[in-house]
Design a protein that fits this description.
126 residues, mainly alpha, 60% helix
Length: 126
C-alpha cells in the first residue's frame, strides 16, 4: 500500500494521512489483519515527521480502527471491532460530511459536485 500526501493542500498532513488510511480500509485496499508500515518507515517514505505518523496511528487505535502489538507492528483491526453503534456512526458520519464539505468549499467545489463524485466512487469500489 502506497500512501500519498499533498504538502500544498490546506489540509494538515496528519488529517490527510488519517483519511488516506481510513479510505484504504473502506475501499478494501487494506483489509483486516494487514500490517501497516512502522511509524519510522512511513515517516521516511512520506518525508514527514515520525511524530505525525505516531499521532495518526494512536488516533486510529483509539478509534478502534488499528491495533498495535508491541514489537510486532500495527495492524488493521477486525471488521467487527471497527463496527460502532448507530448513534456513534451517525455522529462520525456527520463529522466526516462536515469536513468534506468544508474542504471542498475551500477549493471551490460545490456540495452537488461532492455528492456526484461520491456516488461515482461508490459505484467504482463495489
Amino acid at each position: 500500500m502506497q500512501f500519498r500526501l499533498d504538502s500544498s493542500s490546506p489540509v494538515p498532513l496528519y488529517a490527510q494521512l488519517e483519511r488516506t488510511i481510513r479510505a484504504a480500509i473502506a475501499s478494501g485496499q487494506l483489509r483486516e489483519g494487514d500490517r501497516l508500515p512502522t511509524v519510522r518507515q512511513l515517516a521516511v517514505d512520506l518525508r514527514i515527521n515520525a511524530n505525525t505518523v505516531a499521532r495518526v496511528y494512536a488516533e486510529l487505535e483509539r478509534a478502534g480502527v488499528l491495533a498495535t502489538q508491541r514489537g510486532i507492528g500495527t495492524f488493521v483491526r477486525e471488521a467487527a471491532a471497527i463496527a460502532k453503534p448507530a448513534r456513534e456512526r451517525e455522529r462520525t458520519l456527520r463529522t466526516l460530511a462536515d469536513r468534506i464539505l468544508a474542504d471542498a468549499s475551500a477549493v471551490g467545489i460545490s456540495p452537488a459536485e461532492v455528492i456526484r463524485h461520491l456516488q461515482e466512487r461508490s459505484r467504482e469500489t463495489r
